[in-house]
Amino acid sequence: MLFSDKTVLITGGSRGIGKAIAIRLAKEGANTVIIGKTAEANPKLEGTIYTAAQEIAAAGPGKVLPLQGDVRFEDQIKHIVETAINTFGGIDILVNNASAINLSPTEQMEPKRFDLMYNINVRGAFLMSQACIPFLKKAHNPHILNLSPPLNMDPNWFSKHLAYTMSKYGMSMIILGLAEELKQYRIAANALWPKTTIATAAVKNLLGGDFLMQRSRIPEIVADAAFYILQKPSFETTGNFFIDEDVLTAEGISDFTKYAVNPDQKLMMDLFL
Fold first, then answer.
1. Do 25 and 32 meet the contact criterion of CB atoms below 8 Å apart?
2. In terms of Cα–Cα distance, which of 215, 222, 213 is closest to 193?
3. CA angle at residue 142 from 54 to 67, to 5 degrees?
4. Disulfide-capable partner of 124 in 71, 114, 193, 225 (CB 3.0 to 4.6 Å)?
5. What amino acid positions are annotated as catalytic residues?
């Protein structure tokens, strides 16, 4: 199996894209460490880190370790990484998937919402990467993958939701820097972003409700793209800003119908593309 004996640490692994990536890699033998804040059932959110772990464990031979944690706090990051190392002996892949979104314009952006986005999206991804680098240096074919968009300086993306754009582009700038900084250690750093909206809790609860959900794709399209990226040689596949559909097309996949929530509805393009 392609990911046998590999350990993958995924932030935001309770649901959505993070859980889908964990399931996809577990099927291929990976041990997964999923990080999430939801330890108890919430009527507005699907599942917990423990129910997600049950699904991941049922998907394949890989072992799964669910850890409650918040990437905004460095002591929790330290505990997460230490526990992962003590459990599985190493870290081969880091997926920075945890993210917060608020599309308010500047005048309406509450400081606490700004801080939440910045501290999860930028600070969390930076500090989690920092904590994992010493162990990625020891891994065979190590990868860092951020769920963040291509850097696009079109003012259109800044004018509508400046705070959110800054935070997601911050995650992408981490990739830009780490790809070059870690090249000497053969650690790959890449970003992945969906071409269309993905049916996640954020889309359902914050952005567009069922109307947008019906015009979205399921998280498995991103998970399948991640599966292909993370098996590529780390020393030659780094510094890329991948789009899920393009990754799958390059692998000879051209029919994306199975990924549509509702194949009868026209898909909604995602932000930043």
1. yes
2. 222
3. 30
4. 71
5. 164
Cα–Cα distance, 212 to 81 (Å, whole number) = 36
Q: What is the pLDDT of residues 119-160, one digit of tens each?
A: 999 999 999 999 999 999 999 999 999 999 999 999 999 999
Residue 116 has pLDDT above 90, yes or no: yes
Q: Would you give the end-to-end CA distance of the chain in angstroms?
A: 34
Tell me the residue ranges of DSSP E strands in 208-264. 241-243
pTM over 0.90: yes
Confidence of residue 204 (pLDDT cuts 50, 70, 90): confident
Find the angle CA(165)-CA(172)-CA(162) to the nearest 5 degrees.
Answer: 10
- H-helix or E-strand spanning residue 64: strand 64-68
Determine how many CB atoms are found less than 10 A away from the CB of residue 147. Answer: 27
pLDDT of residue 113: 97
H or E element in which residue 170 lies: helix 162-181
Residue 222 to residue 220: CA distance in whole angstroms: 5
Residue given tokens 């599966």 in the structure block: 227
Q: Do residues 145 and 229 lie in contact, with contact meaning Cβ atoms separated by under 8 Å?
A: yes
Amino acid at 184: Q
> How far is it, in rounded angstroms, from Cα 66 to Cα 48?
9
Q: What is the DSSP letter of 42?
A: B
3-state secondary structure of 236: coil
Tell me the one-letter amino acid at 7: T
The token pair that represents 246 in the structure block: 């393009």
Burial of 210 by CB count in 10 Å (0-12 exposed, 13-18 middle, 19+ buried)?
exposed
